[in-house]
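Example record

Each entry pairs one chain with its bound ligand, NAP.
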Amino acid sequence: MTIPITRTEAHNTASMLKIKNLAFIDGKFSGAEDGATFDTLNPATEKLITEVAHCGSKDVDRAVKAARRVFNAGTWSRVSPEARKEVLLRLADLIRTNAIELAVLESIDSGKTITDCFNEIGTEVPNFFQWYAELIDKRFDKVSPTGEDALALIVKEPIGVVGLVLPWNFPLLMSAWKIAPALAAGCSVLVKPAEQTPLTALRLAELAQEAGLPDGVLNVLPGMGETTGQAVGRHPDIDAVSFTGSTEVGGYFLRYAAESNLKVIGLEMGGKSPLIVLDDADIDDGLIEHAATAAFWNGGQNCSANMRQLVDVKLVDEFTERIKIRAKSFKLGDPLDPQTDIGPMVTAEHQARVLGYIEKGKAEGARLITGGSSREPGYFIEPAVFTGLTPDMTIAREEIFGPVLGVLPVNGLNEALRIARDTEYGLHATVFTRDIDRAIYMARQLPCGTVSVNGFSEGDIKTPFGGYRRSGSLSRDNGTEAMDQYMQTKTIWINTAHP
Ligand code: NAP
Ligand code: MG
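Structure tokens for the complex follow.
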């Protein structure tokens, strides 16, 4: 989609934003009880945007009490499906109406390009609210096949108060992935945005109130992981947490649950996803563009980025030459410029981490054929392409989460499959082949939540997204499956007598 504003207009919008920097609890913006704040910076300029309320355990507790109160009152959890649907449809419309302002806010807070922000917030984010809104009055519960002396109903009920703990790479989109199905299910929600990108979730809460969501149903608690995130994880009156972030922190939430109230934990975590080019792939049919997108979209700060590119020896030379040219053609720069393809890394710390991997790749013998340097001001890294990767190298095993693509030559389908499977992760894979039998065989053999064939795709609203192995738990975002994360199952057994 083309962006309906110019760079100058985007900067003007940015300078006029009325930024919300307080927590949103029980329908009101308020500071943290102890007055704590933290800074959120613009990663493209390294300048402070605003100081944001840093919620502690008392603030989390206040939000849980509000969420529980309204859940028990039933003014959201028990209203008619049509009533919930109407509010969420209104919210979808309000997001569309405010999409430019939200996209600019997202861009300055995260460093994501205005093009990506607008594509996500102008279309995908409101579509999520609309899709789940429309699902509410179209899902049916079940009647079990009993004999005539009983009627057994299997009904779904909202799980209660849920905590949604979010990453920084798709701030508002990840909010929508989780908030929309949780609200559709009838839950009360606490959102803990990533500390790097708290601003759009706060504005979303305000729009939800305008749409008619009762106070206390949606609370947004900005803060750090160790304080705010941990307080959510350990709170004894939160029924479930849905988390997206690193595998390490996902593990902490299992511990928090074990040490508090055994809340249900849904995890979407890291990856080291392969893109596999078999020897019969059509290299001229968009393959290079897909391979580049798979590695460099969002500056590679994408959990399903296909950084490990396993290319058959028959095609590897041509592939490498063409991907190098494409990598060089990406335009780095001002994220508010619609011409920009790649913005900065989200923080200086993350930039240093990615640059560290690039150094490690060189030290372990991979060959850097383009990019990999930093640029200032801002936390920029030029898209890097490595060749000659071997499966044991650090950059072939660990998640980098930056614009680094590694080409690993493979000899035939079996070797490709063996190397692709040789990872502790299982989020995503892409396979290129013109042979339908090979495509289906590979898709079934790859242990991951999403396999895309002849193009890089994460699926869409309608298809569940999540990981195998250390990339995720059984829960899924998106699709009708996402609502199941926020519901529990009740059996109602009615003995019947013949009158
Ligand atoms: P992260 O450090 O794991 O943070 C995720 C969230 O957890 C943030 O809100 C964070 O707060 C919070 N957190 C951090 N430490 C915590 C602690 N000790 N206790 C409780 N909460 C804590 O991950 P990230 O750096 O934001 O995001 C990058 C990672 O997310 C990558 O590994 C990527 O693969 C993964 N990811 C996965 C998916 C998916 O769907 N599978 C999607 C996107 C990203 P702070 O912001 O304060 O650290
Ligand atoms: Mg920021």
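The domain at 274-460 is CATH 3.40.309.10 (Aldehyde Dehydrogenase; Chain A, domain 2).
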